[in-house]
């Protein structure tokens, strides 16, 4: 092996010209320069593939004893290592930020998700430039880098088409190629996609068989093949992060139907079956105990009989979704194998960025956004039964019930968001690297954490942790390389101290012991009461004899508990966990949270062609009066199509023309729709059209009166019976002159939504505090009239 000629602790590696003779004539025999050599990492550095699934509990995948078939995970485990004490942060964006940086999530500003960022350093969603991502380190050392799938690490005020793109994967994230989506989740049938930082539309429709996971796998396979065809000497770093299996649970019907009838016995029985299978496989210790169900989680036998078929279908769809995801992960791995480079490819298959999600309410959801808006009561058992056959399809935005999430976290307590207990933070993980692992099919039980992935990759590649990146001195990584455990199964763990915290749920692990306290319940999104932090009840577990946190020893060992509670506070101070913040709704408001907002004031003007504007890029019209005014040129024969639309099929509003008539539609969660139509068509020529919404007031989510205008003259009235108070969508956007994604109104489709006339401008104005006056659009209407 040749010695590495580069000093790699300072990145980019400084150019150092070689001194020597400079000749006058290039034909001089003494003219000699060393050949140009492309930058490469040290000889033998492996390719790297990280597969990170979304919202999969420890007990979901068959590779870890669960009911959802994951044959590709099983195959990888048979040729690699299974880690049964690998940990995440209990929530998606924090896990991703921590894994890609090798630092704790509060250290990189990601105490929770970007949508709830505050001005506190540990919760700002801003990664310090002293903590460069591992993709950047690998790229600057000669790796080809690409990310496919979900990126939830972009601060919400930086997610517009104007950036800045410092936190985007292909901006400052270190990935030369990015194809995927920005945000926490996406419609699997009709996603909002980006190629680099450019919005792109899906290459096909759901009717044509499109599905996001398949599309991501197609792009990953194509990129890997191209990279090896053009740069065979260069290793690659691929981060494959599908939106699956985060809600909405979208999957072709035939994959869900495979599981028909397999969950009829309910979640309590399923946990027992999974627990037995886990022991049979040996992925949990023989003396592990199955933790009991908490009172906050209903028993299967207590669920209404008429709802049980709905609950069964929720789980059938989820199981099909996970199997479908594993199938497409397998396609990426097979492509690497077909190229003959699998042996020297280090693969991390991390089955979940947190525990299974309990954000779907105790009954599950046809549209999970109902719960995020505090409106889950709209989804009655009768309504759910009427929608059961649509679950998983493009007409749904579904999620399963809390009980299934609990079952998918077997054998542990609790779920996603609950950072205190292993149900929220322990995820089955498989590591495969034939060139570096001799113990095929081995089990590893050392405590490990997602912040250990980055230092492991660097050690495997023979690369030092950089001390300087792009002129900025770097702070040390906080993770511990797992490489020591690859071929030494009984070596004591090296990562033996780790804090956990999420929305006040918190814990500490130290040398086998864990002290934990569950502070808030994840499916109570709006309302609810919480005790003071100092009144939280702490539990104590001895992991050396209690794998699943089944026996609380707080009463027997109070001194040990107090020791660990103090240790939690020490670690919390060290890594910017304080102040602990258990707020949710308050943190959705940027003014309350203290984070920037793109739009201030009571008015915002748009121009035709603007689109893919996230909710954080648009003035907030929720729970207040507002108006929409547009100057349009209507052709002879009338106009059709969208003037402005926000949201989509599962919640939003649209001002549009249909058969020449001005209409305003307000869609509440895809459950209720209120449409107001004009009394007559919009005349041809240049005109000002306007919609005024007079909010009823008196609280959140109220309705209001709608008035339509042509050139200042009333042209129609109607009423909206209710509104969405918190959020329209996690993935749908605001578009001017067309509508991307799904359509707010059944009067048009995205394909027919483009406005057939001309839009000169569109403006949203907010009403005053009395809810019945609007900001005057000054002389715009008179100018429009003068043009005729």
UniProtKB/TrEMBL annotation:
Q: What are the start and end residues of every segment in region (Disordered)?
A: 1-22
Any Pfam family from its record, for instance, is: Sulfatase
Any idea where the Sulfatase N-terminal domain is? 46-462
Gene3D superfamilies in the record? 3.30.1120.10, Alkaline Phosphatase, subunit A
Position of the signal peptide: none
* Transmembrane spans: none
* Family according to the record: Belongs to the sulfatase family.
* Protein name in UniProt: Arylsulfatase AtsD
Species: Agromyces neolithicus
Q: What is the lineage of its organism?
A: Bacteria, Bacillati, Actinomycetota, Actinomycetes, Micrococcales
Name of the encoding gene:
atsD_1
